[in-house]
Amino acid sequence: MFDMISGLFSGNALSVLVKTSGAALTLLVVIPALMKLFLVTVDEGSAAIRTRNGKPIIRKVKGSADDRGEVVVLRPGTHAAFPIFNWYRMVDVRARSTDLPARSLTGDGGHQHFVHASYDWRPIVSGHDLRVLELDVVNPKERSGNIVGAALRDLVHGLEGGTLPTNAELSARIVGACADQVQRDCGIELLSVMVTGDALTDGYLLSQAITPGGTTGTTPDDWDPTIPTVFASRLTSVG
């Protein structure tokens, strides 16, 4: 037994052991490390932007009317990489939701709506749109929120009656009104707009409660002058 063990560490046996160990180390460690170094894997829900010295590489597109150019974008999958020249920065392109500030909006007939709304959006995976997202807009949510909020305000200002349309109708109208501007200015796709809370403001409720006959200004024959006082005492904060 001793002769067998000592024979493994002598002469040709030791040389074979070293070569075998080196080959195994190369297969298990060196080659995977090189593949990882020269390959970039982009996961689903992400995109990679090619960079140099930490800054995205901008390409000028011939025949394009936009002077801002495009960035080099890698979609999900495995791509060859040359780290000596280029590196890649991952960008999350999954859909997300952003809340708009609660606002008091006035309809066409003077009805006031205290509106809580949010909008769903996602970055557009193209060289031009991600160029806008990464370089021209520090916070795309702020600019897109202003655009969507303005479209919501304009839409509500043209509505009659004391209630808002259903979310399906309201979302389609707002998206149709401002989706192109959101894509052009922010590099994102506007998916939908949802009103998560809607109530008439206290001022309108109070005026309805203390005015005989509601907004008509006429007094019905069976109107009890004590009813408005009861209504006013039972009002609570809405929204």
Automatic annotation (TrEMBL):
<keyword id="KW-0472">Membrane</keyword>
<feature type="domain" description="Band 7">
    <location>
        <begin position="41"/>
        <end position="196"/>
    </location>
</feature>
<dbReference type="InterPro" id="IPR001107">
    <property type="entry name" value="Band_7"/>
</dbReference>
<keyword id="KW-1133">Transmembrane helix</keyword>
<feature type="transmembrane region" description="Helical">
    <location>
        <begin position="20"/>
        <end position="42"/>
    </location>
</feature>
<dbReference type="Pfam" id="PF01145">
    <property type="entry name" value="Band_7"/>
</dbReference>
<protein>
    <recommendedName>
        <fullName>Band 7 domain-containing protein</fullName>
    </recommendedName>
</protein>
<keyword id="KW-0812">Transmembrane</keyword>
